[in-house]
Amino acid sequence: MQKTDDNRKNQKHFSKVLPYITKHRFWLILLIFCAILGGFMEVIFPFFLLNLTNTAINNQFAEFQSLLLWAVLFMFMKLFHKFLYEQSSNRYEILTIRDFRNLISTRIQKLPISFIETFHSGDLVSRLNNDVDKITELLRKIYILIMQPIVFILGFIYMALISWKLLLATIILIPISAILFNKVIKPIGKNSKKELEEIAKANIITQDAIRGNNIIKAFNLENTFIKKFRKTVKKAQEAGLEIEKSNAISVALFIGLRYIPQLVCPLYGGYLAYTGEITVGGLLASMSLIWLVFLPIENILDSLKVFREVTPAINRIFEILEHSKENSQVQSITFDHLQHPIEIKNLVFNYSKERMLLDNLNLQIKEGETTALVGPSGCGKSTILKILCGFYEPQEGEIRIYGNNLFLSNLSQIRSKISLVSQESYLFPTTIKENIGYGKIGATDDEIISAAKYANAHNFIMQLPNGYETEVGEWGSKLSGGEKQRIALARAILKDAPILLLDEPTSALDNVSEAIIQNILEKYMKNKTVIIVAHRLSSLKNVDNIVVLNNGKIVEKGTHDELLGSDGLYKRLYLKQMNDMNSKSKKMEGAIINAQ
C-alpha cells in the first residue's frame, strides 16, 4: 500500500514538473527534432555499410562511387546535427534550471514565516542548489528517451529484414537482463533520498559553524563541530557508495547485455553468411545494427535508474512549491482611519497543541496611542507583534487593521502600514545606504540621509571610510550593536508607517546605546500608533496604556501609576525589577570599595 502511494506521489510530482520543463518550447522542439533526426541517422550508417560492401565485392564501381558521395554528404549532416544538438540541449538545460531556481527562490519569499521556520536555512539552500542540480540529470535524458526508441525500432526492423534468425539469436538475453537490472536499481531511490538529506545536514552544520564561530571558539567546540560534520558527511558518503555499488552492478549487466550478443552475432552470422543465407555486407551491417538494438535498451534502463535517483529531489523541491503562499489577494483594500488602527477579537493562538499561548485575547489600540505589552517571559508578548505583521495565523479570532481583516486582506498592503523594530533587527550584507533604503524603495539620497540623521546615525556613518557606501558585512558584523540598531531605526523612520511595533529594541544594548535609542524613539513615536514590548518597566512611565499578560490572557490594564496603585502582577514585576537593580548596584559599589 505504501509503495502504491509513493508511486502515485512520484507520478503526481512528475506531472507537475512537466509545465516547467516545457516552458522553453523553441529549444525543446529543436532538441526533439534533433532526437528524431538522430534516431534515423543512426540507422542510415549500417545502410551505407551494407551497400558499400556489397557493391565493392560485386565490382559495381558506379554504384559504389555514388554511395560514397552520399556517405560523405551524410557525414557532414552528422556534424551539423551534432552542432544543433549541443546548442539546443545546452540552452534548454541552462534556461530550465535557471527558471527552477528563480521559481523556488520566489516561492520561498512568498511562503508564510511559520512554514519557513520549520526548515533550517541550510536545508532550503541545499534544495535550491543540490536538489535542482539533480533535475539537470533528468533533462539530459529527454534526448535519449526520444531518440533511443526510434533507433531500437528501426534497428530491430532493419536487422529482421536482413536475418530474423540472427536477430532472434542475439536478443534472447534482453528480458533476463532487464529483470536483473530492475532489481539492482531498486535501492537507488532510497539511497538518493538519504544522500540528499545528509548533504543538506552538512550544509546546515557548516552554516551554523560559520554564523556561530565566536561561540564555537569561546567554548572550545571546534572538535565537536568537526566530528559532527564528518559524521554527517560519512553518512552521505555511505549512501553515495551504495548508489555507486548499484551503478557498478548495472554496468556489469550492461557489459553482458552489450558484448555477449557481439560474440553471438559474428559467430552465428558468419555461419549464415557461409551457408549463403545472408551476404557479407548483411553480416557487417548486422554487426553494426546489433549496437542499435542493444544500446537503446541500455540507455532506456539507465534513464530508469536516473528517474529513481531524481525522484527524491523532486519530492523535496515540491514540498516547497506545493505549500500555499501567504495571502496576496490582488483586490485593493481601503484603510478607514475612523476605525481603530488595531483591533484584536477573541484571539486564540498556539505553536503546538500541547500548550495554549494566547487564549481568547481581546484588545483595542487607539489612534496615536502608545501601548506597552508586559508580563512574564513566554506569555506571548512578542508573538502578538508577529501575528500583527501576518507572520503567523491564529487558530481562532480575528485581527483588524484600520477595519480590514488581517488574514482576508492583501498582506503587502497591510504591512505597508506597519514598521517593525525588533531586538535584533536584521541588516543585509550590503551597504548602509541600501539597508536604510529598503524602508522605502526608490527613496532619494536626501531622504535616506534625513532618516539617518533622525535616527542619530548620520555622524557615525560619515566617520566610516566609505560613508553610506560602507558594507555592513553579514548580519551587520562590521557595526556595533547600537550602530546596527540605529540603522534599523533609520530604515523604519524612512518607511514612515502609521503603526510602529517595537519588540524590546534596546534590551541587547549597553546603557549609552540604550539611552540614545530611547531618545530617538520618544521623538519618533509622537503621532504614531505604537505597541511596545519592553523589558525595563521603569521606561513605561509615560506610555498611554499598559496591558499585562499572564498565561495567555490579559490580567490588567492601565497606566503605570494606576497599575502601581493596585496590588496586581504589574506591581510585583516592577518591584522585583527595582530590587534586582538595587542589588546589582550595591554589588558593584562593594566591588569598587574592595578594589580600592
Automatic annotation (TrEMBL):
Keyword Transmembrane helix assigned: yes
MF terms (GO), sorted A to Z: ATP binding
Signal peptide: none
Protein location: Membrane
Keywords: ATP-binding, Membrane, Nucleotide-binding, Transmembrane, Transmembrane helix
Principal location listed in the UniProt entry: membrane
Membrane-traversing stretches: 26-49, 61-81, 142-161, 167-185, 278-297
Domain ABC transmembrane type-1: from-to ranges: 29-309
Pfam families: ABC_membrane, ABC_tran
Domain of life from the UniProt record: Archaea
Ranges for domain ABC transporter: 342-576
Membrane topology per record: Multi-pass membrane protein
KW ATP-binding (keyword) present: yes
Name of the protein this chain belongs to: Vitamin B12 import ATP-binding protein BtuD
Species this protein is from: Candidatus Lokiarchaeum ossiferum
